[in-house]
Each structure stands twice: as C-alpha cells, then as structure tokens.
Amino acid sequence: MGFMSGEELVVTLAPVAVYWAYACIYEALLQRTTVLDRYRLHSRRDEETKNIASRKDVVRGVLLQQAIQVAISVAVLKLEGHGAASDDGRTAPEPFLVLAARFGVAMLVLDAWQYFMHRLMHSVPYLYRRFHSWHHRVAAPYAYASQYGHPVDGVLTETLSGAAAYLISGMSPRVAAAFFAFATVKGVDDHCGVSAPWNPLQAVFRNNAAYHEVHHQRGGGRRNFSQPFFVVWDRLLGTHAPYALRRRDGGGLEVRAFKDPTR
C-alpha cells in the first residue's frame, strides 16, 4: 500500500504535465515557425523589452508554485480521505448530468474566488507591491508565464481557489484531474499572447487571451480581473473593459481597450 493512490497521483500531477505540454506547443509554434505570427498580440521585440522577469526567472517561479500546489493538493486529498486504501476501483461512475453539474459548480467557484482575490491584490497597494506585481513583470505574456508570480499570490489566488472548487463541487479525484487539467489549459491559453479566431477556447469563452491582454496593459490593472472562464463578475461589478483587435504595423495584432458603453 503506497502513500498515494493512482487517482491522487493523477489529480496532483496531471495539471503540471498538461501545463508544460500545452505551453511547449505554443513555444514551439511561436519560436520555430511563423504559423501564428499574424495572430501575435506582441512582437518578439516586445517580449524582450517590456518583460522585467527573464524566462529563467519565470521557469523557476512556475516550478516553485507548482511544487507548492502539489503539496497542498496532496494535503487536501488526504484530509478528504481519498487515500490508497480507498482506491479499490469499485466506485460506480456518476451519471453524465451529475458530472456536468459538478464541473459547472467548480467553474463558478473558481471564477468567483479568483475574481475577488485578484481584485483585492490590485486594490490594496501593499498586496500588489509585495506579491501580485511579480505576475505583472511579464507585461507581454507568453504561454508558460501563466502561473508565474509570488508564491503567496499563487497560493491565495490559484491553489486555494482550486481547493475550494474541489471541495464545494464534491467531485471525485478522477473528475478533479480532468477539471484541473482543463482549467490549466485555459489559463495557459489566456496568457499565450496569441488571438486566433479558429482557437475553440478563444471562440467559446469571452474571457480569452485578448480579454486578459487588456488587464496586462499599462493602466489595465483596474479592469478585466475575471479569470479563467467567464466575464460575469467584471460585468456585474463595473470592471469590464471591452476591446477591439486591430492589425499592428509590422504584423500581428494589437488590443485596443475602450470604456464600456453600458457604464
């Protein structure tokens, strides 16, 4: 009997594996080909001149955040009693509608927690300077910088929101693995620096790479806090900023934010 069951290993490690796999696909396409150049939201020069954090700093920061995330995930699973002893394979699968409902609840909980914590990080000067400003050291986002930030910010905003979504939705570890893999892909895509009309995630969700780009722009720190799925909290609480995509001189796209006409 091992310390961790197969389900526990999957739910803790799958999001990490998916994160780097999906981010590396974007990196390969952007650095080795020109396939996505017409959809880039920043030029290669922008990434060199606007970003304060080096790529090595980003990799180290993300790996640290993921190590903390794994440790907290294991602790939550153990406290919930999902140990190796319970991994007997006899649990009956839930009906699809029940699984879909749990997925939906988890999405809503994750969105609500992250919106209010994210907004708090921007509203309290000390919290922004000490913690959240790390994430904004990457002003021209790229895929694997999605989870880059101060460890305290990462725990409060991302890890604890995930724990809350898991506990409140009542999903099993196996379903949680699928949910967090999906949420991870969504977060990476929101920071990929590419706005492609044929990308299904960006077509289905209004909260996408272009939407989040507004938040990373100079002066955008009081707008578009919502992440990672919906924009409902921004719309309800007056922090929503619409935008337009325009062709950038020299190639690619640029995001132009403007005031919400409904406010």
TrEMBL record:
Catalyzed reactions per annotation: a long-chain fatty aldehyde + 2 NADPH + O2 + H(+) = a long-chain alkane + formate + 2 NADP(+) + H2O
Protein name: aldehyde oxygenase (deformylating)
Compartments, as annotated in UniProt: Endoplasmic reticulum membrane
Family: Belongs to the sterol desaturase family.
Enzyme class, first EC level, given as a word: lyase
Origin superkingdom: Eukaryota
GO cellular component: endoplasmic reticulum membrane
Predominant subcellular localization, coarse grouping: endoplasmic reticulum
Record membrane topology: Multi-pass membrane protein
Molecular function via GO: aldehyde oxygenase (deformylating) activity; iron ion binding; monooxygenase activity
Gene source species: Dichanthelium oligosanthes
